[in-house]
Request: fold
Amino acid sequence: MIIVGGFRYITSGGNPESTKSARNTILYAIIGLVVVALAQLIARFVLNAAT
Reply:
């Protein structure tokens, strides 16, 4: 999704609405990656604490 957002940003042609939409796509993709990383860390912590 980061690549898709970057492509949309590049091809927005300076249209403020398209640029904002592309930036939001990139932002939400980064937030998603952070959530996935945190979920993995929490799962590892719980599994290590259980053993």
